[in-house]
C-alpha cells in the first residue's frame, strides 16, 4: 500500500477524455516521476490529486484517507504540498514573510487571527522560518521582495515554503520548466539533498528526461490519458512501448 | 396581454440604452483592460453634441427691425429674439426644417467629435494607465469624468435642456391596430422605436466590424491574448486606440439619440455610470454579446418590476430590482451571463 | 471572531522584546513614531488648521472649526478601515458607505430609544454595522475582482434605495432622522418639552467648545472633536497592529497570491471575511461618530458616490499605507468644505489690492474653479495626483522628505507600500 | 460690486484680544457657537452682521441654487441701501431703512448643500461655527430644509427656509427657530382642486405617479384628498424611484387604465423626464370616454418648465409666485414689479419663484430683527410669529404662530402653448385666495410635530 493510491480515475472535459482508468500507487519515501507527452493528462492528474479538479470516476486516497471532495487547502493540510510549474510565491511580500506563512499555517492549520502580536514577536515562528531560509541557503535574501528575485531563487523559495509545512508528499509540477541548464542542475541537487535529509515522498511531473532520470526511483508513463507502463528508470529507458509513444517524439533526450 | 407587450417594448427601449453604453464599456474593458469611469461622461458628451449642434443651428442674429423686446411690461437684456442664420440663409421653410431635424443631423457632427475625444483621451491619458493598478485607473477616469461634466455644467448649466425630436417623429405608432388588438391599446412613441432600431443597427455594425474585418479579428485576438498578438509583430496599440475612439463614438451616439427621450443634463452620465457597470458585469466581463444581452434583460426586468400588479405584491421592488437581479446572476453564474475566465477577476 | 481580536488587543501585554520588534505599545520605533505624529496632529489640529488670523483675507482657508475637524477625523477612521480591506487584501468594495449609513441609523436609534450618551450609540453602530457587513461580506466574497465590487455596490444601492423610500418609517426617508424631545428614551429621563436633545458623554456635550485667543488668532477646542480624536487614535493604533500582525501578513498574502495560500493549507475566505467585517465595523464606527457629533442621518450617505468617495480617499492618500487614507480623507473633505464656500465676493476681496482690470482678470480666471466649481478642482487634482504621484499623497510626502534629507537612505515605513505599488507597475 | 469681509467674528475678536492683552489667551467656554457673554449664538458685534446662504451649487438643482443666490445678493444689496431698494419700498412694514440691519452692515457667506442633507448640514455648520452666521437661509429640497432646520434649532440660530414644499417642514418636522415662506403640498392641493374642477369637471379619474420619498407622499396625499373631496376618483397611484430617469414603464400602464387625468407628483429632473415621457406617449392627444386627457403637475417651477420645453404646453400646476403677478392681477400683488425690476436690471432676466422666496425671507428676517430690536433668536421668533404683512409680492400674508408657515394666495398656472422665450413659459390661470388654502394647525396632514421652544444656543 503506497502513501498515495489512485484507483480507476477518469476525467472528461466535454468531448475529451482527459484521463481514463488511471491507477497509480506511490510508495512512501520514494521519488516517483510521472512522464508523458504533451496532452497525456499529466496536469489533469495532478490537479485531481490536489483537489483543484474532481475526477468523474475512481478514487484518490492519501495515507488511507480519501481526498476526493476536499478543497485544496484541506488536502494540503493532510500533508500534500505542491510546487507549481511557474513558481507561485507571494510576490509582494519579503522572502522572510513568504517563509513565515507556511510556518504559521502549519501551526494553526486553519483560520486564525493569530492574536494581535507583532509579526516579529513570535519567536517560535520566526526561528522556524529563519531556520528554513538557512536550509534553503537564502538567509542573505531575507528582506528582498520575493517578486524581484531570479526564477531559480523563486523556485528555491517555493520549495522551501512547501518543506516548511513538513509535508509527507511533495508534488512537483515540471519544477525545471523554462530554466537554464545551470539552474536545472541546482534544482536537481536541491531535491536530492532534500530527499537525503528528510523523510519525504516526492512525486514529480516532468518533461525533462535529464531531471527524471537523475532523480526518479520509479516512473509512470502516461499517454492519451492512460498509464502506459510503470517501472524503474532503467527499464523505462529501454521499454519499446515508451519509445514508441513518447521518446520517439521527444527527439534528443 | 397588451400591457405585457407594452412593457416588453419599454424594456427593449430601456435595454437599448443600457446595451449601447455597456457595449462601449465592454470594448474598453475587454480590449484595454481599463476600468473606465469616464464612460458615462462620454454618453453625456454625446448628448451635448446634439445640444451644441442644435444651438449652433439656431444661432442667429437680432434683426435690425426687431425693436426692443418687452415681456410682461419689463425689458430684459437677455430676451432678444434672434433669427437663426440657417433660416436667414435657406429661407423660412428649409431653414426651420433643418433646425427641426437637428438631433438626427447631429449624428454626423457627433461621430467625428466623439472619435476625436476618444482618441485624445486614450493617447493623452488612458494609454499611460494600461499597466497601472485598476485602482489608479478608477481614480484618474473618475477625475476625468468629474472634469468633463463640470466643464459642461459651466457652459450649459445644471438644468435639463429640451432637445426635441423632429416633428415627423412626434406621436405614437399604433401596434394595437396592427396586431389585431383594439386600436389605441398598444401605442408606442415613434422616436422610441427609432431609438430601438438605431441601437440594433449600431450593435449589429459593431459586431459585424469585429467579426468580418481583419482589423476586428486582430482586435478580438488581442482581447483574448494580447501578448501573442504583439509577438506576431502587429501594432496592437494603434488598433486599441481606434477601438477606444469607436467605443467613445458608440457611447456618444447612444447619447445623441437619447436626447429627445429625456432632456439631457450635465450629470446624466453619472446617472448611467453605475447602471452600465452593473450591466457589463452581469453580462460577464470581456463578453460583447453578454453586455448586449444583459442590457436588454435588465431593461425588460426593470420595466416589468414597475407594473402596478408587481408593486402591489412587492412594494419597492422597482427600487432595487436591477441590483437584486445582479446579485442573483453573479451568485448563480460566477462570471456573469457570458463572462470569460480570468478577466478582471483579480 | 472579531470581538475576540479586540479583546486580545486590549488584554495582551507587549511581549518580551525580540530582535526586530519591541518598542512601545508593541510597535516598532517607526510605527510608534507614526502614531505619535498622528497624535500630535490630532491634538494640535485646532491650531494647525487655523494658520491665518481670523480677520485676514486668508482666513477663508482656515479649517479649524469643529464641524470640519470632526469630519476629518471621522472620515479618516472610515478610510483607515476601508484600507484594511482594500489596501491589504486588494478586494475593492464599492459599497462601504452602506455600513457607514447602517451604523448611523443604528446609532441614532440608540440615542432615540436608549440614552443620549454617545458610547452606547457608538457601540450599537459598530455592532450593527459589523453584523450587516458579515452578511454582505459572506455573500459578496464568493466572488472576486470586479464581480465582488459589483456585488457590494448592489447591496449598498439597495440599502440606499430602500432607506430613501420603502423604509421611511425606520429611516425617515428623504428628511432623515433627528433627535426629538419626544423620543421615548429609556435612560436619561424625559426631556422637558421644548428642550433640545443633545448627544452627551457623561455630562459633556459634543458641541461644547473652548475658544483660545492669541492676538488675532482664535482656536476652538471642541469636546466632540477631541472625543472623536481619541477614537481616531485608537482606531489608527489598531490598524497599525493589524498591519504588522501575522493576520495582516495573511491579508497581504491574499492580495499577493491566493493560489499559493490555498496550497499552503489556508483558505483565504475567512481572512478576507474577517478583514471585510473589521473594515465594516470601522465604517460603522465612523457612522456612529457622525451621528454622535451631529445628531442626524440622511439616506444620501449610503449612495454609491459616498462609497466611491472612500475609495478615492484611500487611493488618493495611498492604498496600503498606514497614514495615507487619513491624508486622503482630509484632502477631499477640505476641498468639499472650504473651496466650495469661496464665492465671487471673496475672490474680489482677495484681489482688491490690484488695479481694477487685473483684479477682474484674476477673478474671472479663478472663479470657475471655486465655489460652485469646486468639483472641477477636485477632479483635476484627482488626475494630477494619480498621474504624478502613483503611490498617492504619501508618496508625495516621502518625495518631499527625500528632497530635504538627501543623506538619508531609503524611505520610512510609509514608503514601502507606495514603492511597492510603483514597483509592480514596472 | 460690494467688497465684503466675511470673517466678522475674527475682526471683533481681534478687538477683544487687544483689550485683554496680546500675550494672554482669552478663553470662552460654552457651546461651539455661543458667545458666552451675549446670551445667544453668534451675536453680532462690531459694525457687521453675517448671514449664511446655503444653496445647492452642485447636483441637479444647481441652477435653482444659483438663482437663489442671485436673489440673496440682491436682498443684501437692498438691505445695505445699495441699488434701487427693491421691495423695501413696497413692504408694509417700513422698519427697514437701507442701513443694514439695526445699523449693522449685512455681509454674507455661501455654501453648497449639494441637495444632500449631510452636506447641507456640514455647510451650515461651517457658516455657524466658522463664519459666525446668525441666520441661515436657502435650499431647494425638503430633505435639506428639514435637516438644516433641525441644526439651526440645536445651534440657536434662525433658519429661513428656501424652496421646500413638503408638508413636513412646517408639519411633523417643524421647529421653533425655523420659518417657511414657501407654500406646501396641502396648499397646492387646496389651490388646484377648485380650478381643476372648473377646467376639467368633477367627474374625472386620476392616475398618480408619485416620487417615492417624503415630499412625494405628502403631495400625493394632499392632491388626492382635495380632488377626491370634489368628486374625482383616484384609479391608481404608483411610486417611482427618485433615481429613475426613464419613466416609460410607468407611463405605459396609464394608457391601459381608464384614467383621464395623470397627476405627476414629481419635482426637478423627475418631473422633466416624466412629463416629457408622458407627452411622448401621446397622452396630450388622448381621449378617454369623450373627455380630453389631462396632465397635472402639482408643483411647477420655472426651471423645470424650461427643462421640459414644449412639453409643458397646457399643463396645469401651482406656484408660490410668478413674476407676472402684479402686471396681470393688479396691485394686490405689489412688490412683485419692484423685485422683478431690480432683479431684471441686475441679471437680465426675470427671477424664479425660488429666487423670490429667498429674497423675501431675507427681508422678513431683517425686518423682524429691526422690529424686535434684537438679534436674539427668541426675539426674532416672537417678532415673526403671527406677523401680518403685505407688499412682498404675494398679497396680504400671515406668518402663523402655530407652525411658522406663511399663509397667502396660491398661483395656479398653465404651460404656454407658444412661449416667446425661455423665461416666460407659463401663464397665470387663476389665483386661489388665501382662505381656501388655509388649514387648521392640527390638520392630520401636518400631525406629529411640535415647534418646541426657541433656542438661543446659550
From TrEMBL, chain A:
Residue stretches making up the ABC transporter domain: 4-249
Pfam family, one: ABC_tran
Keyword list, A-Z: ATP-binding, Hydrolase, Nucleotide-binding, Transport
Domain of life: Bacteria
GO biological process: D-alanine transmembrane transport; L-alanine transport; L-isoleucine import across plasma membrane; L-valine import across plasma membrane
Leading EC class: hydrolase
Gene3D superfamilies per record: P-loop containing nucleotide triphosphate hydrolases
Gene Ontology CC entries for this record: plasma membrane
Disulfide bond found in the keyword field: no
Gene Ontology terms, MF aspect: ATP binding; ATP hydrolysis activity; L-isoleucine transmembrane transporter activity; L-phenylalanine transmembrane transporter activity; L-valine transmembrane transporter activity
Cross-referenced SUPFAM superfamilies: P-loop containing nucleoside triphosphate hydrolases (SSF52540)
EC annotation from Swiss-Prot or TrEMBL: 3.6.3.-
InterPro entries: AAA+_ATPase (IPR003593), ABC_AA/LPS_Transport (IPR051120), ABC_transporter-like_ATP-bd (IPR003439), BCA_ABC_TP_C (IPR032823), P-loop_NTPase (IPR027417)
Keyword ATP-binding part of the UniProt annotation: yes
Name of the protein this chain belongs to: Lipopolysaccharide export system ATP-binding protein LptB
Organism: Jannaschia seosinensis
From TrEMBL, chain B:
Pfam families: BPD_transp_2
Keyword vocabulary terms for this entry: Amino-acid transport, Cell membrane, Membrane, Transmembrane, Transmembrane helix, Transport
Membrane topology: Multi-pass membrane protein
Residue ranges of the TM segments: 16-35, 42-62, 101-126, 195-219, 239-260, 272-301, 313-331
GO cellular component terms, semicolon-separated: plasma membrane
PANTHER family per UniProt: ABC TRANSPORTER ATP-BINDING PROTEIN (PTHR11795:SF442), BRANCHED-CHAIN AMINO ACID TRANSPORT SYSTEM PERMEASE PROTEIN LIVH (PTHR11795)
Protein family per UniProt: Belongs to the binding-protein-dependent transport system permease family. LivHM subfamily.
Descriptive protein name: LIV-I protein H
Naturally occurring in which organism (per UniProt): Jannaschia seosinensis
From TrEMBL, chain C:
Membrane topology recorded in Swiss-Prot or TrEMBL: Multi-pass membrane protein
Stretches the record annotates as Disordered: 1-22
Domain of life of the native organism: Bacteria
Cell location: Cell membrane
Keyword vocabulary terms for this entry: Cell membrane, Membrane, Transmembrane, Transmembrane helix
Keyword Transferase found: no
Molecular function GO terms recorded: branched-chain amino acid transmembrane transporter activity
Chain intervals with Low complexity compositional bias: 1-15
CDD domains: TM_PBP1_LivM_like
Gene Ontology CC annotation, any one: plasma membrane
Stored Pfam families: BPD_transp_2 (PF02653)
Transmembrane segments: 32-52, 72-94, 114-139, 146-167, 223-243, 270-291, 311-335, 347-370, 376-396
Protein name: Leucine/isoleucine/valine transporter permease subunit
From TrEMBL, chain D:
Biological process, per Gene Ontology: amino acid transport
PROSITE patterns: TAT (PS51318)
Transmembrane annotation, as ranges: none
Chain coiled-coil ranges: none
Residue ranges of every copy of the Leucine-binding protein domain listed in the record: 48-416
Keywords carried by this UniProt record: Amino-acid transport, Signal, Transport
Matching InterPro entries: BCAA_transport, Leu-bd, Peripla_BP_I, TAT_signal
Family under the similarity heading: Belongs to the leucine-binding protein family.
Record protein name field: Urea ABC transporter, substrate-binding protein
Gene source species: Jannaschia seosinensis
